Amino acid sequence: MAINSKKFRNTVLLLITELNGQIEGKKKLAKLLYYIDFDSYERYEKPITGDTYYARDMGPLGASFKSELKKMAEKGDIKIKQVPNSDGYKPTEVYTSHTKPKINALNKREIEMIKRVARNYGGLSGTQLETLSHEEAPYIATDPHEIIDYELAFYRETEFDR
Fold first, then answer.
1. Does residue 122 lie in a domain region?
2. Count of beta carbons in the 10 Å neighbourhood of residue 87
3. Is residue 134 domain-resident?
């Protein structure tokens, strides 16, 4: 599957908008994108961004995640700020934007899915999302560092009425 850069860009911008203008942490953003694509696939048999996800140690990670965010930052679509941590960990990347998503780049179903993921998972930390993703069939059934098959989304039993 190939990444749809326009949908990736507008998905990230809509997520930032839905989460009060910022997303704290690379891990959190990566997992939210995973949930958006895998929830969409489970429900409609089609991901939104189309990124390829790998089973990394800290959970699913899109192959194009870093390069797409870098392009967005270079274009000025997003700002990535390094916020120091007091606990000795690497600085946290905080993503913000004043750029509005181009809603016409996403269909109604996709917008609803992104908002649903923001509502259901946006209040969780990156570490909480990592733990959650590690407990799901797509991650469990995939060997470390291998591609996670979108078909495994059908074994998640996500509740879509919430």
1. yes
2. 5
3. yes
Spatial separation of the C-alpha atoms in residues 154 and 105, rounded to whole Å: 26
The structural domain count of the chain equals 1
In a domain, 124, yes or no: yes
Number of Cα atoms under 13 Å in the Cβ half of residue 87: 2
Is position 162 within any domain?
no
Paired with 81 in beta bridges are 94
Q: Using one digit for the tens of pLDDT, what is the confidence trace for 62-121?
A: 999 999 999 999 999 999 999 988 777 788 999 999 999 998 999 999 999 999 999 999
What residue numbers bound the domain in which 10 lies? 5-155
Strands (E), the chain: 22-24, 53-56, 59-62, 79-83, 92-96
Closest CA to 48 of 125, 133, 108: 108
CATH label of the domain that carries residue 92 = 1.10.10
Check: CB of residue 48 under 8 Å from CB of residue 9: no
